Amino acid sequence: MMINYDELIQKYKRLGITDLPTREMIKTPEQIEGIREAGRINTLVLDEVAKHIRAGITTDEINDIVHKKTLELGGIPAPLNYEGFPKSVCTSVNDAVCHGIPDKNQVLRNGDIINVDCTTIYNGYYGDASRMFLIGSCSDVAKKLVEVTKESLNLCVKEIKPFSRLRDIGYIIEKYCKQHGFSVVHEIGGHGVGVGFHEDPFVFHFGKKGTGMVLFPGMTFTIEPMVNEGTRHVFLDSSNNWTIYTDDGGLSAQWEYTLVMTEEGLEILSH
Ligand code: MF3
Ligand code: CO
Ligand code: CO
């Protein structure tokens, strides 16, 4: 890392800006290399899912693919037993926003949309990413929702630079999604990641531009917008205390990358 952390902190404090990363939010080059490797393995696991996902497969079979591929690559699936989560991956279908639990009785059908969210621990480091998959032929609105959600994330990757503010991320995402007629879930966000699964800061997917923590080179975090067809409001499934659904039963899409802030901008470490 070329930046002098203490000097930068002093500079911002003189300007009266106090929402600054802690020292441990700035990863060392060694840590970044470890997170890069974990991210690379995590991407390979999602690639394996992409090869096999189709109508007729159950979400539990997706869990088996993720579990086996992760172990084969020398990793550990981070979701398994994380705060009591019972499976190795989150599979969220249609109106499920996130944290869907793989189930042998849940069969993917033509026209479904599904988010598969994988997190891999490799050599002690974490990579976290998720993708949407369109099963067979989907409605025009489903296809548009999936594309707009992905584009909102890619816009952030393009526009967020070192020393951008944290809430610029959410500003970009919500503005873009609203422009296309969709709503953004507020209750769940991205997070610092790499040495642990969920680190500070919380990464909002909405907000006022020019506010929030200053993003320094060396920070590693996820952006993972959850975008709804209808209302942004959601509820927690009380039968499992994990899965979040849209209040109105409308579709929800999500994409997630693990990112590192370099001196040039955001670099994708897992997708
Ligand atoms: N991978 C999710 C995230 O993006 C977290 C899942 S927690 C679990 O943060 F326990 F459900 F796996
Ligand atoms: Co994730
Ligand atoms: Co995440």
Could you explain the architecture of this structure?
There is one protein chain. With 271 residues, the chain is of the alpha+beta class. The protein has a single domain (26-270), classed as Creatinase/methionine aminopeptidase superfamily (Creatine Amidinohydrolase), CATH 3.90.230.10. The chain is 30% helix and 24% strand. It has five helices and 15 strands. Helix 2 (29-52) crosses helix 3 and helix 4 (140-159) packs antiparallel against helix 5 (166-179). The chain starts with a helix and ends with a strand. The chain binds 2-amino-4-trifluoromethylsulfanyl-butyric acid (MF3) and cobalt (II) ion (CO) (2 copies). One cobalt (II) ion binds at residues 128, 191, 222, 224, 256. 2-amino-4-trifluoromethylsulfanyl-butyric acid binds at residues 79, 82-83, 85, 90, 99, 117, 119, 128, 222, 224, 256.
Distinctive features:
single chain; 271 residues; alpha+beta; Creatine Amidinohydrolase; 3-stranded antiparallel sheet; binds cobalt (II) ion
Low-confidence stretches: none
Quick one: biggest sheet?
Answer: 4 strands, antiparallel
Helices and strands: which structural class?
alpha+beta
Give the CA-CA distance, first to last residue.
Answer: 24 Å
The CATH superfamily label reads: Creatinase/methionine aminopeptidase superfamily
Radius of gyration: 18 Å
Bound molecules: 2-amino-4-trifluoromethylsulfanyl-butyric acid, cobalt (II) ion
Q: Let me know the number of strands.
A: 15
The number of distinct helices, counting runs of at least 4 residues, comes to 5
Named CATH architecture: Alpha-Beta Complex
Helix content: 25-40%
What's the CATH class, please?
A: Alpha Beta
N-to-C series of helices and strands = HHHEEEEEHHEEEEEEEEEE
CATH topology call: Creatine Amidinohydrolase
Q: Which overall shape is indicated by the principal axes computed on the Cα atoms?
A: globular
What is the domain tally?
Answer: 1
Sheet-strand content, in percent, reads: 15-25%
